[in-house]
Specification:
By secondary structure, the protein is of the alpha/beta class. It has a domain of about 110 residues. The protein has 12 helices and 9 strands. It has a 5-stranded mixed sheet, with helices on one face. The longest helix is centred in the N-terminal third of the chain and has 23 residues.
Amino acid sequence: MVALVFLSILIVGGVAIFAASQTYLADVPPIPAREALWAVRRTPGMTFVDHTGGIIATRGAKYGRRVSLAELPPYMIKAVLAAEDRRFYQHGPIDLQGIARAMRQNARAGRSVQGASTLTQQLARTLFLNRDPSLKRKLQEAVLAWRLEQMLSKDDVLELYLNRTYFGAGAYGLDAAARTYFGRPASTLTLSEAATLASLPNAPSRLALNTGGMPAAWARAGRVLAIMREEGWITPQQEAFALAAPPVLASSTGGEGAYSYILDQAAGEATTLAAGVSPDLVVRLTIDTVGGRARGTRTTGQPGRAGGPGARRRDPGHGRWPGSRTQRL
């Protein structure tokens, strides 16, 4: 009799799991080839440069260089882990311990005050899903996170996360954020700047530094620095020094000015000729920005070097995004 009851429970449970999979997991997005992950669902962006390679203006999404972990200061990586997933290298795609901790915290508060999504789950959401707080999305996010970690190492997941995450102000990826907010590449960030940027992915639009989000972001950066100290990633002296030197935003570039009409024409032509092949373009114009003269409109569509001074030079090692191409217009 006991065996029959146990068998019935197994059958009912199996049917329930099958029904749930058909309801929630039947349309889980497929994961493309490894290199295609760098371009999937990228918001198009366009950077205009003059005949010397100097940046005139940017439109749409801003992308910096594709940076590797080895290029970044160690504290930049630790700041992101402190902000988003301090046990990233200790758990799998799902953090059961983190889920239990979040449930306790939320139960005590009587509301949702802490999430439990791992960094890999956040990456899966960025690449394939949205922020819909439904059970279906959360289940699909878990499945996609598991598949990503079957394909990628932990370092690969973290590197992809840093290059694809939105940091507010139209900046996608850490290097674009560093150039947008602080006017220099991610490889040269200070500890206080690193902690501040690490605080942004939690609420990038609300915390965008150039639209009034700096006070809230800096307060969150203080918590990031405290976690880094608790984990032994920085010393108390480093924490104190960073807190005593809040980051300073770079000056605004001032817009398109007199070139707006020319850029409209070039943007239309570049978009037509690229035909959606390049996820973003660098459009080279024969404009003399010093003399204020337009000497023609020969443009070059080039992939993924938007955002700051790094766009002035070709970077074959990291500037090219997979799936894009260079094309003369």
